[in-house]
Write a structure and sequence with these properties.
Largest sheet: 8 strands, mixed
Low-confidence stretches: 317-323
Mean pLDDT: 89
Number of helices: 16
Strand content: 25-35%
Number of domains: 5
CATH superfamily of the largest domain: Periplasmic binding protein-like II
CATH class of the largest domain: Alpha Beta
CATH architecture of the largest domain: 3-Layer(aba) Sandwich
Radius of gyration: 30 Å
Number of strands: 37
Structural class: alpha+beta
CATH topology of the largest domain: D-Maltodextrin-Binding Protein, domain 2
Helix content: 10-25%
Length: 637
């Protein structure tokens, strides 16, 4: 047969762009599978928890369960004796804590009485000390995984804990792989002179597997035009796309191009890259068919350059980190540790001002969601009592560093909309994602000052004029050009049980023994609550539970739902999510503070684009309690 001459060899980007445009109709398929078989799969939609975890108030330590009110007055000068079944019960880690018992004292802090029939304590305890409250780790109806997330082993554990048994995932494309060549033999055959063990197809099959596809390898074909034509027809009918290896060059026995031309349309034969020039980009029966050269290096290079982009159209993702890498990062806050253990701390990573910053996540042994959120681990050696803020640390990665580089880092106030924004940024294959750490508005602004975040979600009230965020931004950043990206107006108020059994109507009704759950220091919600107390002349001491803190609005809501508290201040959307009642205090402004120069960052531009989008507004309507009239507007400070 006449040699195949390369006509109109194309630049790589031109050839690829033209080829992908021909298959713009390809959309990721979806399928529902069992959670226990979902390792490595990609979520097709956001996943929400059905159950809280733990689902009951549980003992966090071995010791005794006590009625905290019965321990008041205990001190070293006035030891207090506790009587079995009147003041305490013996408990082990994981046991259920039932009313009237509401706290646990560790075994190490107990002094056994001389008669052996009780214990003496020398310090009082407080409600929920050493108790894992309902929903401490996972709260029913909160988002566990966003769209486009690669499911890991720890994710499966969390999904099962949250009551998820089946999950909607992206369907893996089936990629047909046809090896050709008279000189090729299978690896199971004895090697003879003039024969070559065929290996490329096995490399392709595993590359397909690594990149979320299913490789379907066909037997080796001899250099025979009719056999190649028949096998191509069969493979196209059975698979989503087809790779045919070897026979794409200019040899007299290279029949691939002729078979493809007879069956379909050739877009490119020959690309201006070395090695890898003899690439065929074509279409048969409206499916991609790619001819790759036979030399192993060329075949590998052209697979990554031409096959993967097409697979990504089916999968909406590329490969993943196959080896654990280690990077150097600046620690955002001090980590203390004991000398007993080498401690592994889960961290979120982000690049701010060209510096990799590590923000520690929850350190509790039961905080499995922190593993889902973590980008890596830093290790505190056994001979160190901690690591100071701003020190450089080594982080072992569990996520792809390339994705971390595209991460927008938010530290500050919590709201359910952060999960929604992240989900929308991940949806449709966008190039950025959002990492949010919930520490409260003030702590977030401090992190922004220290260049440890790209922006700080905030809702800090100025008592003088009733405005939000502007005054504190001017005060904390007097010599910087700052902006406030307007977020949402949200309904803030008191979350109470369904039916409001205690008839709570105002802040005055929270006094006199009503169990309150507060937010952490520096949280905008706590600032608002303190403002209301001051305005009404109410002392913090009159609020039972003022020191009982929760890190998020959803944690407040679940505490009320599960009777760990009677009332807490939070946002309407969390009350609605858990079917609780809500007594409105008013609307507040939840915004995003950042540096003016950060407006040029691609991730920030994408963030603003999502805020202004119709999809975000629809999701807000579903959550309830939000106004979005100013979403995405920029206010220069």
């Amino acid at each position: 047969m006449k040699r195949n001459l390369y006509l109109n060899v194309q630049e790589k980007e031109t050839a690829l762009s033209r080829f992908l445009e021909a298959f713009s109709h390809i959309q990721p398929g979806r399928e529902r599978i069992s959670v226990i078989h979902s390792l490595g799969r990609i979520t097709a939609e956001a996943v929400y928890a059905r159950y809280s975890s733990p689902s009951y108030n549980s003992c966090a330590m071995d010791g005794i369960a006590v009625i905290s009110a019965h321990t008041k007055g205990a001190s070293e000068s006035h030891p207090l004796r506790l009587i079995y079944e009147k003041d305490y019960l013996d408990v082990d880690t994981g046991d259920m804590i039932m009313p009237p018992y509401d706290a646990v004292i560790m075994a190490e802090d107990l002094i056994e009485t001389e008669d052996g029939e009780g214990y003496t304590i020398i310090a009082p305890t407080h409600p929920f000390a050493h108790v894992r409250a309902i929903g401490e780790d996972i709260v029913a109806k909160e988002m566990i995984l966003p769209t486009g997330h690669r499911i890991r082993a720890i994710d499966i554990s969390v999904l099962i804990s949250a009551g998820i048994t089946e999950i909607e995932v992206i369907k893996k494309p089936v990629v047909g792989i046809i090896p050709t060549g008279d000189e090729m033999i299978e690896y199971t055959e004895p090697l003879e002179d003039g024969k070559i063990i065929e290996t490329n197809s096995w490399m392709f099959e595993n590359l397909v597997t690594e990149n979320d596809g299913i490789g379907h390898r066909y037997p080796i074909l001899p250099d025979d035009l009719e056999l190649i034509r028949q096998k191509l027809t069969e493979a196209v009918s059975e698979c989503d796309m087809v790779i045919i290896n070897a026979g794409s060059s200019a040899g007299r026995d290279d029949y691939t191009i002729h078979a493809i031309q007879e069956l379909g349309e050739v877009y490119t034969h020959g690309v201006a890259i070395k090695p890898g020039k003899p690439v065929i980009l074509s279409k048969i029966q409206n499916k991609p068919v790619i001819g790759l050269p036979g030399y192993p290096v060329s075949s590998y290079l052209t697979f990554t350059e031409f096959v993967l982009p097409v697979m990504n159209m089916y999968c909406r993702t590329g490969g993943f980190v196959r080896q654990q890498k280690q990077v150097t990062a600046k620690l955002s806050k001090t980590l203390m540790s004991g000398l007993k253990y080498e401690e592994y701390v889960r961290v979120k990573l982000g690049i701010v001002e060209n510096e990799l910053v590590a923000s520690p996540l929850e350190r509790g042994a039961g905080a499995s969601m922190s593993l889902v959120r973590a980008d890596g681990f830093c290790v505190i050696p056994q001979d160190k009592e901690g690591i100071l803020a701003h020190e450089n640390i080594q982080v072992k990665l569990v996520k792809d560093m390339e994705q971390i580089r595209k991460t927008l880092v938010l530290i500050g106030s919590h709201d359910l909309i952060l999960d929604v924004i992240n989900d929308l940024m991940m949806e449709e294959g966008r190039d950025t994602c959002l990492s949010s750490t919930h520490v409260g508005s003030m702590a977030g602004l401090i992190a922004l000052q220290k260049k440890e975040a790209h922006m700080a979600p905030s809702h800090l009230l100025d008592e003088k004029d009733g405005s939000y965020n502007t005054a504190i931004t001017r005060e904390m950043f007097p010599n910087e050009k700052m902006v406030i990206i307007k977020g949402v107006r949200r309904r803030q108020g008191f979350i109470v049980k369904k039916g409001n059994p205690l008839n709570i109507q105002s802040i005055h009704d929270i006094m006199h023994g009503v169990r309150y759950i507060n937010r952490q220091r520096g949280a905008g919600t706590r600032v608002l609550f303190d403002y209301l107390l001051k305005k009404e002349g109410i002392s913090k001491k009159d609020i039972s539970g003022y020191e009982y803190e929760a890190a998020t609005h959803m944690s407040v809501a679940v505490a009320v739902q599960k009777d760990n508290a009677d009332v807490g201040m939070g946002i309407y959307s969390c009350a609605k999510a858990l079917d609780l009642d809500f007594i409105e205090v008013g609307f507040e402004e939840y915004d995003f503070v950042t540096y003016e120069k950060y407006l040029e960052l691609p991730a920030v531009r994408e963030f603003i684009h999502v805020l202004k989008g119709e999809a975000f507004k629809k999701r807000l309507d579903m959550l309830g309690g939000y106004g979005c009239e100013e979403c995405g507007q920029i206010c220069f400070i």
